[in-house]
Amino acid sequence: MSLLLALFMGLSALGVQGSTDTTRTDTVTAVVVYGDDLLLEADEALSDDRLEQLLDSLCTLDPAPEDLIRDLRLFKRIRSMDTDQMVVLIDSLFELDTVPYPLINEINLYASNMPTQSAVDQATLLPWSNTNIEPGQEVYGAWNTTNPNAYGPELSQKDTVVLVQLTNGPCGFSMPVPPVVTSRFGWRDGRPHNGIDLDLVVGDQVRSAFPGVVRFAGTFGGFGRLVVVRHYNGLETYYAHLHRLKVKSGDVVEAGETIGLGGNSGHSTGSHLHFEVRFKGVPIDPSHVIAFTEGELLCDTLVLKKTRWSFAAYPMGTQFHTVGKGEHLYAIAEHYGTSINALCDLNGITRKTRLRVGQRLMVSAPQVNDLAQTTKVAR
Ligand SMILES: [Zn+2]
Fold first, then answer.
1. What is the C-alpha separation between 349 and 328, in angstroms, rounded?
2. Ligand 1 centre and the CA of 257: distance in Å?
3. CATH code that applies to domain 319-378
4. What 3-state class would DSSP assign to 146?
5. Distance of CA 220 from the midpoint of ligand 1 (Å)
6. CA distances from 130 to 86, 209, 336, 377 (A)
7. Are 246 and 204 in contact (CB under 8 A)?
8. What mean pLDDT is reported for the chain?
9. How large a percentage of the chain has pLDDT more than 70?
10. Rounded to the nearest whole angstrom, what is the distance from the C-alpha of residue 193 to the centroid of ligand 1?
11. Which fold has domain 116-315?
12. Three-state secondary structure of 240-288
C-alpha cells in the first residue's frame, strides 16, 4: 500500500479531489479521496483544542457515537506523526475488516495540507479598508446584503497566515453588551457553536463592536433577527436573536453605536445575544479577540493561521504552555503572571476542567501597541 505514499505526497497522480499549485508547473498535486465520506464536515476547524472539545462533547451524547469517537482519537494521534508513520498507519487501516474510509480520507487531506514553516513566516498584514461604501472589497469581492453566509471557504483557500489590525486609533472597540458569558465558542452536543452567548434582558441595547458598515440586517433562519457588520479591519461581526433591528444594510456605524435591541428571536431558548466574529465567512473564537472578563480587546493585532478550511485565531504575542505531569491552573497562572480567570477565558475552559498532560494552553497575550515594535524585534 505504499503506492498511497506516492499519491498523497503530491506527486503527479489521479485523484477525485485535486488542486493545482500556484507555481503552475506540470505537476498536479492530488489528494486521493475514497468516496465522499469525511470524518469531519468540510468547514470545521481542526485545531487540537477544537478536536478535544468535539471529543468531549461527543462523549456526553447518549448514546455516544463510539466509532466516530474512536476514529477521531486516532485522527488526533496522527498530528504528532511524520509522513512515514502516517503511511504505516494508513496501511494498517486498510487491513481492517471494515476499512474506515472517512478516517483515511481525513488523514490524506491533513497530510496534503500540512503547513510549511516558510508559509507561516510570510504573514501578510490585512489592509485597513478606508471606505464607507462596501468596505473590504479587496478581501471579500462582492458585497452581499441578502445572505449573511455569502462567503465560503473557497475565499480563504490560498491564505496562510494573516495579521488583522483590530483597531485604528482610539474608540475603536466597544463591548456589544456587558460581558456575561453563558455559552462559549466550540462544541455543544456534538455540533459546532460558532459564537459566544452573552446574557441580556429583552430590549437591552446591542452595540457594534468595531466601526464599519452594516452588510445585513434582517431575519435569517435560526439566527432570528440578525445584524452583520463588515468592519474596516476586515472582520465581520454577527449579532443574532435580536428583538428589534435599529439599522439597515449600508448604514455606517461607529464602535459602540446601537445596532439593535437584544431578544430571543430565531432558534433561541431564553433572551441572549449570540455574537460571532468571522473572517471571510469563517467563524473564529471571539474569546481569542476579546477578554470577556474585562470587556476589552485582548490585543490590537490578531494572528489568523489557516487550518484546513478554517482559521485558528491568536492574539499577537500569545505564548503557549504545554501542560506537564501534575501541573494545575494555579501554578501555570502564577508562573506566567496571569490569573486563573484569564487562563480559563482564553482557553475556553473552567476552573474544574481537568488538564491533560501534553495539552497546549494559551498563556498570555500581552498588549502589543504597535506592529512596528514587533517587526523591529523580528529583524
Ligand atoms: Zn449562541
1. 13
2. 22
3. 3.10.350.10
4. coil
5. 14
6. 47, 17, 38, 29
7. no
8. 80
9. 81
10. 6
11. Glucose Permease (Domain IIA) (2.70.70)
12. EEECEECCCCCCEECCCCEEEECCCCCCCCCCEEEEEEEECCEEECHHH
Residue 179 has pLDDT above 80, yes or no: yes
Query: Distance between CA atoms of 127 and 130, rounded to whole angstroms?
Result: 9
Q: Ligand 1 centroid vs 201 CA: distance in angstroms? A: 15
> How far does residue 222's CA lie from ligand 1's centre (Å)?
10
Supply the pLDDT for residue 36. 72
Rounded to 5 degrees, what angle do the CA atoms 68, 79, 311 make? 85
Question: What's 176's DSSP letter?
Answer: S
Distance 237 CA to ligand 1 centre (A): 13
Task: Quote the ligand 1 centre to 190 CA distance (angstroms).
Answer: 14
Q: What percent of the chain has pLDDT over 90?
A: 31
Which residues, in sequence order, are CB contacts of 327 under 8 Å at separation 6+? Answer: 355
Higher pLDDT: 370 or 103? It is 103
Ligand 1 centre distance from Cα of residue 25 (Å): 45
Which residue in this structure is represented by grid cell 485522527?
75
Interval between CA 372 and ligand 1 midpoint (Å)? 36
Between the CA of 267 and the centroid of ligand 1 the distance, in Å, is 9
Predicted TM-score (pTM) of this structure: 0.73
Dihedral of alpha carbons 312, 315, 316, 318, sign = negative
301 sits in which H/E element: strand 301-306
Number of neighbours of residue 20 by Cβ within 10 angstroms: 11
168 Cα: distance to centroid of ligand 1 (angstroms) = 28
224 against 305, higher pLDDT: 224
Q: Three-state SS for 105? A: helix
CA of 183 from ligand 1 middle (Å) equals 7
pLDDT band at 100 (very low <50, low <70, confident <90, very high): confident
Q: Where are the domains of the chain?
A: 3-114, 116-315, 319-378
CA distance linking residue 49 with residue 186, whole number of Å: 9
Distance 192 CA to ligand 1 centre (A): 10
Q: Residue 310 pLDDT more than 90?
A: no
